[in-house]
């Protein structure tokens, strides 16, 4: 019998998460794909996650429920310009965030996720390496600021996190007297990150909430995509958890690419009646792009 494994990212809807065997951050999804013996992996996430799963587990058939599930960090990056940029720093180590295309990873030395980026980049600096970082300008700016690095950065952003706004945040802190904490994903702009009590990956943010032991009446503002608020509220239903505001003042920010994983699209993919198979990566790209992924997976924090 064909074995199907469904993996979902925290940014998918609660209904989609309930259809999945595992829900996790992008590192978890890569690790689940690595360990899986399933014939088919349905990846309810975005395309770079499905491509990564395919490169890690080439024997599995990897299905993305909707081929439109891209990521602005990928679409904002012109691959020819990126290659030129990388070649203009010949003696630098190129670290690429996992939110990148396979062609992009093929010209990187390391990949990182938001969970291990700090440890890997600190490690490379300790080794005396000069590092360039792509494609997320906000995350790179945060790393340079926080650790006094001087990494040249590629300039793409997550269109969802880039909208979190420090002025709206300051207003909200004034309006809501119980608002005491801000936790933020490092794809957010630096002025927002400077106000954060904790900065971490989706996994890290969820753990922060799980372990929170402060005042239960405090409001915790979360600067990341709305999907994970479901997991946070499930973990700690007694806490006041609210999304951070964006430019329009609204406490609402949603990734349109993640939301293409509708219940119908995921169910059709699980039944092998829909979705798109990740079968277009060339041998050459897989060989080159898997190297930086492998380095990351072998890196022990
Ligand atoms: P995580 O690695 O924290 O899950 O982030 C993935 C992502 O796309 C964030 O926007
Ligand atoms: Fe890409 Fe941002 Fe969506 Fe994550 S939230 S998949 S970084 S567009």
Primary descriptors:
single chain, 301 residues, alpha/beta, Rossmann fold, five-stranded mixed sheet, four-stranded parallel sheet, 16% strand, binds 1,3-dihydroxyacetonephosphate, binds iron/sulfur cluster
What does this structure look like?
This protein is α/β, with parallel strands linked by helices and 301 residues long. Among the domains are: 4-70 and 257-279, 3-Layer(aba) Sandwich (Rossmann fold); 161-243, Rossmann fold. It contains 14 helices and 12 strands. It has helices spanning 14-17, 26-35, 47-56, 72-75, 79-87, 102-105, 117-126, 137-147, 166-175, 190-193, 202-211, 227-235, 263-270, 283-298; strands at residues 4-9, 22-24, 40-44, 61-64, 93-97, 110-112, 131-134, 179-184, 198-199, 219-223, 240-243, 276-277. It has a 5-stranded mixed sheet, with helices on both faces. A 4-stranded parallel sheet has the order 9-8-10-11, sandwiched between helices. A 3-stranded parallel sheet has the order 6-5-7. α11 packs parallel to α12. The radius of gyration is 19 Å and the shape is globular. The mean pLDDT is 97. The site of iron/sulfur cluster has 15 residues, from α4.
């Amino acid at each position: 019998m064909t074995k199907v494994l469904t993996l979902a990212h925290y940014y998918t809807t609660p209904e989609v998460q309930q259809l999945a065997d595992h829900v996790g951050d992008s590192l978890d999804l890569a690790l689940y794909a690595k360990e899986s013996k399933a014939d088919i992996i349905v990846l309810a996430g975005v395309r770079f996650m499905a491509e990564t799963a395919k490169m890690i587990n080439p024997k599995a058939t990897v299905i993305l429920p909707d081929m439109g599930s891209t990521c602005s960090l990928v679409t904002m990056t012109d691959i020819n310009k990126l290659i030129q940029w990388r070649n203009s720093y010949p003696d630098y180590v190129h670290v690429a965030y996992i939110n990148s295309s396979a062609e992009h990873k093929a010209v990187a030395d390391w990949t990182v996720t938001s969970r291990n980026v700090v440890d890997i980049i600190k490690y490379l600096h300790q080794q005396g390496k000069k590092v360039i970082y792509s494609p997320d300008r906000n995350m790179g700016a945060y790393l340079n600021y926080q650790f006094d690095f001087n990494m040249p950065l590629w300039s793409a952003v997550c269109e969802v996190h880039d909208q979190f706004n420090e002025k709206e945040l300051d207003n909200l802190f004034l309006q809501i007297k119980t608002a005491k904490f801000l936790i933020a994903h490092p794809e957010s702009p630096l002025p927002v990150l400077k106000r954060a009590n904790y900065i971490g990956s989706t996994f890290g943010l969820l753990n922060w909430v799980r372990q929170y032991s402060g005042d239960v009446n405090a409001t915790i503002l979360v600067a990341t995509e709305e999907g994970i608020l479901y997991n946070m509220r499930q973990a700690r239903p007694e806490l006041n958890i609210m999304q951070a505001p964006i430019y329009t003042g609204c406490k609402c920010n949603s990734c349109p690419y993640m939301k293409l994983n509708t219940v119908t699209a995921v169910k059709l993919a699980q039944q092998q009646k829909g979705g798109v198979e990740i079968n277009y990566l060339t041998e050459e790209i897989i060989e080159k792009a898997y190297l930086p992924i492998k380095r990351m997976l072998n890196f022990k924090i």
